[in-house]
Amino acid sequence: MGTWLDETLTWGNALIFFLWGVILLAIVLGFVTYAIYFERKVIGWMQLRIGPNRVGPLGLLQTVADILKLLIKEDTIPRKADRMLFILAPALAYVPAFAVLAVIPYTQDLYFADINVGLLYYVALSGISTIAIVIGGWSSNNKYALLGGMRSAAQMISYEVPLVISVVGVVMMTGSLNLRIIGEQQGNWFWEWNFLPQIIGFVVFIIAAVSELNRTPFDLPEAESELVAGYHVEYSGFRFAFFMLTEYVYVYAIAALTTVLFLGGWHAPAPFLDFVPGIIWFLLKFSCIVFFLFWLRATMPRIRVDQLMGFGWKVLLPLAILNVFITALYLELFIKG
Amino acid sequence: MIRTEELLLNVGPQHPSTHGVFRIIVKLDGEVITEAIPVMGYLHRGTEKLAEDLNFTQIIPYTDRMDYVSAMTNNYVLCHAVETMMGLEIPERAEFMRLIVMELQRVASHLVWWGTYLLDIGAMSPFLYAFRDREMIIDFFNELCGARLTYNYMRVGGVKWDAPEGWLDKVRDFVPYMEKKLDEYNNLVSGNEIFLARIKGIGQYDAQTAIDYGLSGANLRCTGVDWDLRRAEPYSLYNRFEFDVPLGKTGDCYDRYLIRLEETRQSLRILKQALEQIPSSGEVMGKVPRVIRPPAGEVYVRIESPRGEIGCHIISKGKAEPYRLKFRRPSFVNLQILPKLLVGETMTNLITILGGIDIVVGEVDA
């Protein structure tokens, strides 16, 4: 991939880039389809149920059937909704979710965009989805949707701060915002990966990430027992599917980002395991994180909205800043000197 | 200058967490409730009025449909009232059968509450665990009387069916199983930090307020008032068994939660004793006249249902039908404190408090 990016842009190259984009889209859609299946199965097993098992062998086509159903459903727009914004919101939510995937490196050689400020790009773009959710909640002209949208805005803004600050430690250790370099610089033994020296940052990052994803225990924007469905209560058909899609694409993105930032990316946990290709290691770590996110949903109750804010600003943010401070101290005393 | 105004939000009657068709109109200032107006009656079927045209045996199935999560206790309160009026003798085995099904029902009802309450709070799994165990109790009832929810099991003077062969042994095996599961549930949920943060100190009131509002059941005992009709005014055979009445101190949702869990354990304790003492054979139906005509007069009896004090007031003119029948429904009475508790709370706490009161809309509206 890297060599392609260095060449001058011709029509042929542009076509190849376009094809790679389509391939990535297909992979992501495939991931979302089976992540939903996997989530339902995992939660089902934890809850003494079987999960989907009717459509296709082992229920493997269940999500496909669900998506098909959403596609052929009537697309309703409430009469009093703000039409333009209502239509815009799902697309606005999805585009940044997909765009952030460009900077994620899967192995040394397999990546789509090698940007020097890759991490910054990720954080900046993912913030746009918040706006989409607020727009979706506002334009529906529904009180529950509005409450959900406002909650979501408050939550995502207050958790983006600790999320960003928690990765500063990693950036300081690596000296780069380029995700490929961050991945590459982590050592060949698993204790040389960032998650151990950056343990505070890692924990803060995971918690803030779960909150960014609006997943249990931070699933307040769509708390079904209070707000029925939250910001997407008025959406149906494929517009609703787009919001769902966004959510799962972010699961993909966060899992991949955590792998690269903290879990050594494509490195094997020990040098003698190097014969296994890097992409396999990447996928393994990635899957573990996805599983962890789903596992939480079967385990945790939901936190309250005021507690969520307090936790974000009073606990996570100071911890993240402390982590930056400790990292700086360590670098100053032991590395530089 | 920003113009702000209160948001009028209509919660229910179609809302996932109002436990049926209950509706609350709340005025929200941001997320804080400034006023809450409960609206009831969406499930009103006029049980009490209908009863005036029915004879007493025909009324029993109607009581099933009031508190459909705890139909056995409703059966009992009506039969008990009529029996008190007529001074009927109940065979011992019948009384034991009644007590066993009532305590099983209490366990089942508290399990439903436990599961749905945690579901309200956002924890999904406990709901399914609770329903697995409740299912076993429902299977027992199914075997006993052929219905899973509306049993129509008791009759004036006894019970309709004796326990089938091996039924009591199955229940005997169930009790230790359930005790083990209760410990497991306690370990799973009761100490969870998020859960504690959600319910500790929420929906708090003191003993005097509780008495003023006429609360009963766990809603009263959470303030420390020792009032359980099974011990305060023993009916059926409750004076033969040893059990504790769990009490709270602070009167918040967490105390109510702990009390209900402990009550389940105490019910199992009663069950264990009852299953040992039940006579191995005997009549299950007393000597009852063919047409049940209570003598003219009035009677009010009350028993402890899983939700609190359920009472039955019958005015009879000596006919086969009651002249007037009135049920004191604990869900309805307990709900009265809701508007007071909600003021100043957030939307999230609305669900926590409403769930903590433990209402069954069938009983609220009757």
UniProtKB/TrEMBL annotation, chain A:
It is found in: Cell membrane; Membrane. Keywords: Cell membrane, Membrane, NAD, Oxidoreductase, Quinone, Translocase, Transmembrane, Transmembrane helix, Ubiquinone. It comes from the Bacteria. One of its GO terms (molecular function) is oxidoreductase activity. It is a multi-pass membrane protein. The keyword Transmembrane helix applies. Its EC number is 7.1.1.-. It catalyses: a quinone + NADH + 5 H(+)(in) = a quinol + NAD(+) + 4 H(+)(out). InterPro entries: NADH_UbQ_OxRdtase_su1/FPO, NADH_UbQ_OxRdtase_su1_CS. The keyword Mitochondrion does not apply. PROSITE patterns: COMPLEX1_ND1_1, COMPLEX1_ND1_2. NDH-1 shuttles electrons from NADH, via FMN and iron-sulfur (Fe-S) centers, to quinones in the respiratory chain. The immediate electron acceptor for the enzyme in this species is believed to be ubiquinone. Couples the redox reaction to proton translocation (for every two electrons transferred, four hydrogen ions are translocated across the cytoplasmic membrane), and thus conserves the redox energy in a proton gradient. This subunit may bind ubiquinone. Belongs to the complex I subunit 1 family. NDH-1 is composed of 14 different subunits. Subunits NuoA, H, J, K, L, M, N constitute the membrane sector of the complex. This is NADH-quinone oxidoreductase subunit H. It comes from Paenibacillus oenotherae. The lineage of its organism: Bacteria, Bacillati, Bacillota, Bacilli, Bacillales.
Automatic annotation (TrEMBL), chain B:
It is found in: Cell membrane. Pfam families: Complex1_49kDa. One of its GO terms (molecular function) is oxidoreductase activity. It catalyses: a quinone + NADH + 5 H(+)(in) = a quinol + NAD(+) + 4 H(+)(out). The keyword Lipid metabolism does not apply. It comes from the Bacteria. InterPro entries: NADH_Q_OxRdtase_suD, NDH1_su_D/H, NiFe-Hase_large. Residues 120-292 form the NADH-quinone oxidoreductase subunit D domain. Its EC number is 7.1.1.-. It is a peripheral membrane protein. Keywords: Cell membrane, Membrane, NAD, Oxidoreductase, Quinone, Translocase, Transport. It is an enzyme of class 7 (translocase). Belongs to the complex I 49 kDa subunit family. NDH-1 shuttles electrons from NADH, via FMN and iron-sulfur (Fe-S) centers, to quinones in the respiratory chain. The immediate electron acceptor for the enzyme in this species is believed to be a menaquinone. Couples the redox reaction to proton translocation (for every two electrons transferred, four hydrogen ions are translocated across the cytoplasmic membrane), and thus conserves the redox energy in a proton gradient. HAMAP family: NDH1_NuoD. NDH-1 is composed of 14 different subunits. Subunits NuoB, C, D, E, F, and G constitute the peripheral sector of the complex. This is NADH-quinone oxidoreductase subunit D. It comes from Paenibacillus oenotherae.
